[in-house]
Design goal:
The protein contains 18 helices and seven strands. The chain folds into two domains: about 1-210, H-NOX domain (Alpha-Beta Complex); about 240-344, Homeodomain-like (Arc Repressor Mutant, subunit A). The chain has about 350 residues and is an alpha+beta fold.
Length: about 350
């Protein structure tokens, strides 16, 4: 699949054309001159119909701004997501649909985030009673409010279509200011919608992650994953392998499936290449796993609602005693001693 994907230089982000293609169709139905907006954004002559077409980040950001301005629609990202037709997100959508559970499906979105935006990283991070799907792009490639809302609304709508129509997040959070009328945001997300927040994403109940998908087909999901791996190989290399590996380790810790072989496969490289790239960045896989576990342990222990056994599980330990030994090695204190001191 990756042969026709544009190879940008390391300094220029590219975005798959799916979202812009859906936006253009939405504008045409609204009677807006979509061709004129494309021209003003800087890619008027580009064919958007090829599913692997990639576009420069800047014009994509601009065309969403122009579309919101032309329609006066503050919730245009949500409305375009609702107008999405089945299959619009190509192989990644079918990999999502074929996953065994909603948690596995969201894991596909996290794992292949760079297929959508080659400077984006996503993660599923434990947070209180739920797990937050959150992401970031470098400061020099910011996504505007409309694309951020489109992205989160798209995967929530797909979860409702393919898993359970009644799924509602615990909350949805955005960094940008609230619109003048946030009614549409509250209607669609069906949960508290928070603006001007330090963390962007959807917080999903842990129980919802285990919900089965209607079209579950693990063998098909694995096959499509291999195709998506080829797309990743075609994209510009992320200069920080360790940062990408850290995110994958965080995602896999609760399952107990963390291994150098698995992470290397998710990064579409051999174990030897991964080890060499980490060494070049003055790290190692063992050090990286230890660092991630220590970071998460310190954060979880400050949350008094979390039991020590639950924290051990989230860190990928099969027994609480192993977590206790590791934590004492890291800090010189037991987890309980650290928690007591942290809370005075």
């Amino acid at each position: 699949m990756g042969s026709k994907a544009a190879r940008g230089s390391s300094g220029h982000a590219t975005v798959v054309a799916w979202g812009v293609q859906l936006l253009m169709r939405y504008l045409e139905r609204r009677g807006v001159d979509a061709a004129e907006l494309r021209h003003r954004a800087g890619f008027g002559s580009v064919d958007l119909d090829h599913p692997e077409r990639r576009l420069p980040e800047g014009p994509c950001r601009e065309v969403w701004r122009l579309a919101a301005e032309a329609t006066g629609d503050e919730a245009i990202g949500i409305h375009v997501a609702e107008a999405r037709t089945p299959g619009a997100f190509d192989v990644l959508e079918y990999a999502f649909r074929a996953s065994p559970t909603l948690g596995d499906a969201l894991g596909q979105v996290v794992r292949y985030a760079r297929v959508m935006h080659d400077r984006m990283t996503l993660r599923l991070a434990p947070e209180g009673a739920g797990v937050r799907l959150t992401g970031r792009v470098p400061e020099d490639h910011p996504a505007n409010r409309y694309r951020t809302e489109f992205f989160l609304a798209t995967w929530l709508r797909l979860a409702r279509d393919t898993c359970d129509a009644g799924i509602a997040p615990l909350d949805a959070s955005f960094a940008h200011p609230a619109p003048a009328r946030p009614d549409e945001h509250r209607r669609f997300f069906a949960c508290p919608v928070l603006f001007e927040q330090p963390v962007v994403g959807l917080r999903i109940a842990r129980a919802d992650l285990g919900r089965p998908m209607h079209g579950a087909d693990p063998a098909l999901a694995a096959l499509l994953g291999r195709q998506l791996d080829k797309v990743l190989v075609s994209l510009p290399a992320d200069p920080s392998v360790s940062s990408r590996a850290r995110l994958l380790v965080k995602d896999d810790l609760p399952s107990g499936r963390v291994s150098v072989e698995r992470v290397a496969g998710q990064l579409a490289m051999s174990v030897r290449t991964l080890s060499r790239r980490l060494a070049d960045e003055r790290s190692s896989f063992r050090h990286l796993v230890e660092s991630v576990r220590r970071e998460l342990a310190l954060a979880h222990l400050r949350d008094e609602r979390m039991e020590l056994a639950e924290i051990a599980f989230l860190l990928g330990y099969s027994e609480s005693s192993a977590f206790h030994r590791s934590f004492k090695r890291w800090t010189g204190r037991t987890p309980l001693e650290f928690r007591r001191r942290a809370h005075g």
